[in-house]
Amino acid sequence: MLVHQQHPPPLPTSPSLAIPANSEYLEYSYNAHISSPAAVQLRTKPIDIDPLPPRKKLAFSIRPATIADAPAIARLGATVFATTFGFSIPTNDLKAYLTEAYSVEAIEEDIRCATKHILVTCLEDQTANNDEASGQEIIGFAQLTEGTSEPCISDVESVVELQRLYVSTACHGHGVGKLLANQIEGVARRLGYRAMWLGVWEGNFRAQKVYEGLGFVKVGDHEFKMGKCIQIDWIMLKDL
Fold first, then answer.
1. Which residues are in the N-acetyltransferase domain (predicted)?
2. Using one digit for the tens of pLDDT, what is the confidence trace for 130-165?
């Protein structure tokens, strides 16, 4: 699951970014004639991900992110974004955006920023593909960002943005995203906020249903730009 965020213009490709080889955006030729989110959804096809057994109970914990987590967060963020949206974005624009938003340096800057609060979900008792610094595999993360707003919520007092909520595709259906969302809402309440907003792509029907289930309602929309690619995001709001 995934929420969009606003961004400055993309930066050139950085060698610190490892773009996943099995992402949909490498398999698809961007189709500028796709005119609706429904049509876009119909063009998706399964990606090569080996999901966890559905009956296996995951043991995981949630904690604040540290600088040592930056490489793992960058990898997960780039992978989830590319597999979710890659088919709908021109390749050059996608690569530039991933470099801007999910280089290790960009994530380190986010972690250090006093107005951004990041939680990570770590898979316990896992020996393969572990984050070297913590000994735990990071399977999700959420980011709360203070000081942002949108015209459609300009009259809402004490509001904070849920800028990112990402869960590894292989871990969907295990309650990871719901618990992570609850924990990041707790952070917002402790900071004194009374409402939370987010942006979600109009074609991401799965995420919209998840957020509606968490209590968010659509209150408007905005343009989400990546290079020459412009998509429409729903703006959703929740009282805390």
1. 60-240
2. 554 445 799 999 999 999 999 999 999 999 999 999
Separation between Cα atoms, residue 15 and residue 226, nearest integer Å = 20
Cα–Cα nearest to 141, from 179, 186, 94: 179
Please give the radius of gyration of the chain, using alpha carbons only, rounded to the nearest integer.
17
d(CA 22, CA 27): 8
Question: What CATH class does 59-239 carry?
Answer: alpha beta
Return the pLDDT at 2. 56
3-class DSSP state of 104: helix
Residue linked to tokens 């967060």: 73
**What predicted TM-score, i.e. pTM, was given to this entire model?**
0.74
Nearest to 37 by CA among 219, 201, 229: 201
